[in-house]
Design brief:
Elements: E1 2-3, E2 5-9, H1 13-25, E3 29-34, H2 37-46, E4 51-55, H3 63-71, E5 81-85, H4 90-97, E6 103-106, H5 111-125, E7 138-141, E8 145-150, E9 153-158, E10 162-168, E11 171-176, E12 180-184, H6 187-193, E13 199-203, E14 206-209, E15 213-217, E16 222-225, E17 229-232
Parallel strand pairs: 2-3, 2-4, 4-5, 5-6
Antiparallel strand pairs: 1-9, 7-8, 8-9, 10-11, 10-14, 11-12, 13-14, 15-16, 16-17
Length: 248
Amino acid sequence: MSKVSVLIIEDTPAESEALVKVLTQNNYAIAGVATTFSDALALFYKNTVDIVIIDVFLNGSPEGITFAETINITPDISRPFVFLTSSNDRQIFERAKLTKPFSFLLKPFNELEILYAVEMAVEKFYEQSNVFLSDDQDTVLSTDSLFIKKKNSLKKVLIDDIVYIEVEERYCNIITEHEKFVIMISLTKISELLEKNKFVKTHRNYIVNANKIEEIVLHDNLVILKGNHKVTLSEKHKDFIKKLNILR
């Protein structure tokens, strides 16, 4: 698991320091702080960035919009982003709007505005609306990660780090080697995300990461996974064993 990574593009030290403080206090990682367009691009391409917070004006020029336009050229590398501005220029707003930001905040911002904007950006970017409805844990699915809300922050869980998933009615227990997350999501929805040749059912209530299997004990109907996790193996779901070379 890793923290959700935020790139800050802001040329006013007091503003960038306030953003860093709010985000780090709420368990987000800072990918970097850029004060110019060129620095922002360098940090964006160099680091893993999940969300970008962009000041519209950098050094008196709307370079923040130029940055957003640049990262939107190639959809494969675009990321959700939020604009910050103290400008009331309608023409600038119309240009910024064309880049399809996920939120547009006026300065001075407050802590909740930033945290809510980050959540909304993740939801909208992955086209899953109305996910974070309460203070309980909930989740958004991306192609390689789960963004799980816990209190005021999001936790990023890489799909490859999942050992197994246990289904309990409307809830799923997401188990990694070191952590457990309880999320409100259907088995059908999460199954659509997972690679069928990597995640296999061993029981109607269990999906396991085949790369994490260490042993299959047929006479006990058990699958032993990394971290000494054990899940049930039912007769109905034994077919996947034929594709594996780990049988003891």
